[in-house]
Every structure is written in structure tokens, then in C-alpha cells.
Amino acid sequence: KLVLPTNTEYTLALLKPDLCADPHAVQQVISDIQKLSSTQNNIYLRKELVWNIEQAQQFYYQHKDRFFYTRLTTYMTSGSFEALILTGENIISQWRGLIGTTQPVRAKVSVQDSLRAKYGITDTRNSFHGSDSKESALKEISFVFGNL
Ligand code: RTP
Ligand code: MG
What we know:
InterPro entries: NDK-like_dom, NDK-like_dom_sf, Nucleoside_diP_kinase, Nucleoside_diP_kinase_AS. By secondary structure, the protein is of the alpha+beta class.
């Protein structure tokens, strides 16, 4: 059973399959994450994942009626990828700030040095996920790491 720290915020970060196809890029990103926190280690847990189509559909159920749902779930089943539980003060907005806006092309305009601008390939294959609230973080972490 997974026990989350109670004294700090946490979030679920996904390094999606396109990024994980490039181990050098993964190493760079891990080092960028570690720079978010100057004091303690902010990577609480790290896990390699492979999703079948049912798992991808369930994780992204809220998008089931969107035009990009099929290509999103296909993308997320295209290879192994990594899930990380990140912890720290304001880590939800810190991580979303680092990855940048959803669509890499827009991210290139708005935040030049965002991770999606740097690594993202298309609007869907944007290399990263970050929980958007404490509620989503809790739900997503228990989906990926088992019941809390
Ligand atoms: P995420 O949940 O992955 O952190 O991304 P987000 O909040 O920035 O974006 P969201 O709207 O929740 O979309 C979830 C994922 O669906 C793919 N997507 N493709 N126009 C498109 O083709 C499109 N829009 C979204 C992306 O992979 C996005 O991260
Ligand atoms: Mg989202």
C-alpha cells in the first residue's frame, strides 16, 4: 500500500512514450525536475509503465468525446513510458509551468524554454502530463500506483 507524504503537495508527472524513446532526453528532463527544488529530492517514486488500450481510455476518460481521443489513446499505448510522483511546495503548478501549454506549437510561442516546446512533436504527442489539481493528482496517482 502506497503512503503519500502528508506535509507537502504532490503531483503525477508522465514522461510520455515519445520522450521515453530517447533515454538521453529522459536524463535531461530528470535533471530539470531536480532543479525545481533546491533542497530535498522531489522525485518521490518513479515507475515504468506500459498501457493497454483499456488503461489509456480509462485514464483519459474525461476526453472520450473529443476529436483527439483515439489518437491520444493510441499514442499512450505506442510504447513504454514513465510515471513519477513529484513532491514539493506548489509542485502541481511548478510542474505544469515547466512543461508549458498543451500544444507544443503554441508552447514555442508562449514559453520558449518549456519542456513541451523543446521536446513535443504534435498537439497530441506533447511528451508530458501533469495533474491539474490536488483532486486529479490523487485520482491519477492511485490509478497508476495502486490504491492509496
Ligand atoms: P495533460 O492532461 O496531459 O497534462 O495535458 P493538458 O491538461 O495540458 O491537456 P488536456 O486538454 O487535458 O489534454 C490531454 C492530452 O490530450 C492530448 N491532446 N491533443 N488538439 C489536440 O490534438 C490535443 N489536445 C490535447 C495531449 O496529449 C494532452 O496532453
Ligand atoms: Mg489535462
